Every structure is written in structure tokens, then in C-alpha cells.
């Protein structure tokens, strides 16, 4: 077994319903494997321009209403997740980028785990409570309820540091060839799991890397 933990670069968009479902699997992986894995959280631009995405992908399939039905259908089999009926029907965030910016500010202020906790709170605020998480006042309220001082977060936003961290994530996702949210990149970029991947599949891939002999990354 490797002496250092297996690194997983985890890319997600806060407005992606599958990333909301995946968070439970990510938490379980960390709880079960503890120091054997090291998760590095990254934001990816999937819903940066929501209106454009809906027009392009759902313009001929019912627009926002069609997309709302798609999201509701996706969550039908997951009893642990509550979907507010106003999500995408009445509450339509313009972009995920503002939420991502606040998440990166939280990471800079209090560390990666704090940023992940705020990301989960933001997802719950949108999907379960239909709050418009594109709006900074809404994000400030969510952050406060999660134990963050808005003044501290705004310091990183105003300085440009949070924006730089967010752009590093977006650019890193493009360089890594990330196709969407959620995506798990393992083994130094040699392996990517994408989409609604079950917990057992994720764990099996991690265990394969943990049990692989050293210097066997390639047969070539």
C-alpha cells in the first residue's frame, strides 16, 4: 500500500444535481478510507451561463420547465434528497460562478474542508429550499448560517484572490479535459470517473490504486 494518500481531484458545479448526490458518496469515501485518500476540491464551469445552457440544451425540450422535470426525475430514486418544487420552475439562478467565487473565498479563509462544507450548504439552500444562490446577499446569508463571517470572505473577493483561485480551477478543468460535473480524476490524471458514478465504483478504483505495486503505472 502506498505510504502517501491517493489524491483525487474532484470537480463539480454547485448547480449540478448529480454533484449534490455525489457529495454523499465523497463524504462516505473520506469517512471509510480516512487518511488513505486526499480529496482536492475544484469548481468546474457547467452552469456559468445558465440561460445560454438552457437555450442550447433544452430550447426544444421545454426550456426551464423541461429541465426542471429532468432534475425531478433524476432525484426520484434518491429518498435522502429533497427537491423544492420551485427549483428551475420559478427559481432560476443566472450563474453558478458567484457561488463558486464565495466557495473559493471560504477555502482561502478557512481551508479546503471549510470550502467543501460551504459548497454543501449552498447546494442544500438551492435544491432543498429554492434559494437563488446566484445572488450575493443570499450567499452571504448562507455563509453566515454556516459559521462564516461575510466580511472575512469579502476580503478575499475584493482582493481578487478568490477570483484567481476560481480561474485556476476553471483553467485546470480545461487542461485536464474535464467533460462535466461531477468528475473524479485519479492516478495523476490517468483515470477519470465522470457523472453519476456509484460509491462502490469509486471505492473500487481507489482500492485498486492503493493495492497496486509501486512503479506499475504503465506497461509501456
Automatic annotation (TrEMBL):
Residues 8-201 form the DSBA-like thioredoxin domain. Gene3D superfamilies: Glutaredoxin. It holds the Pfam family DSBA. This is DsbA family protein. It comes from Gilvimarinus japonicus.
Amino acid at each position: 500500500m502506498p505510504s502517501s494518500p491517493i489524491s483525487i481531484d474532484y470537480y463539480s458545479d454547485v448547480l449540478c444535481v448529480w454533484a449534490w448526490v455525489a457529495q454523499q458518496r465523497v463524504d462516505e469515501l473520506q469517512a471509510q478510507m480516512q487518511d488513505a485518500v486526499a480529496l482536492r476540491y475544484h469548481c468546474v464551469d457547467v452552469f456559468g451561463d445558465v440561460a445560454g445552457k438552457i437555450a442550447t440544451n433544452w430550447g426544444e425540450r421545454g426550456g426551464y420547465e423541461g429541465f426542471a422535470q429532468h432534475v425531478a426525475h433524476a432525484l426520484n430514486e434518491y429518498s435522502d434528497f429533497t427537491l423544492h418544487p420551485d427549483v428551475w420552475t420559478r427559481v432560476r439562478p443566472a450563474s453558478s460562478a458567484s457561488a463558486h467565487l464565495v466557495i473559493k473565498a471560504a477555502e482561502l479563509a478557512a481551508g479546503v474542508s471549510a470550502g467543501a462544507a460551504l459548497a454543501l450548504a449552498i447546494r442544500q439552500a438551492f435544491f432543498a429550499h429554492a434559494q437563488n444562490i446566484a445572488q450575493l446577499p443570499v450567499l452571504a446569508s448562507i455563509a453566515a448560517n454556516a459559521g462564516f463571517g461575510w466580511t472575512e470572505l469579502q476580503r478575499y473577493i475584493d482582493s481578487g484572490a478568490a477570483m484567481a483561485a476560481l480561474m485556476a480551477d476553471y483553467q485546470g478543468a480545461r487542461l485536464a479535459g474535464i467533460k462535466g460535473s461531477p468528475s473524479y480524476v485519479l492516478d495523476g490524471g490517468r483515470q477519470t470517473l465522470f457523472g453519476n458514478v456509484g460509491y462502490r465504483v469509486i471505492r473500487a478504483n481507489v482500492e485498486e490504486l492503493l493495492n497496486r505495486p509501486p512503479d506499475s503505472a504503465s506497461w509501456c
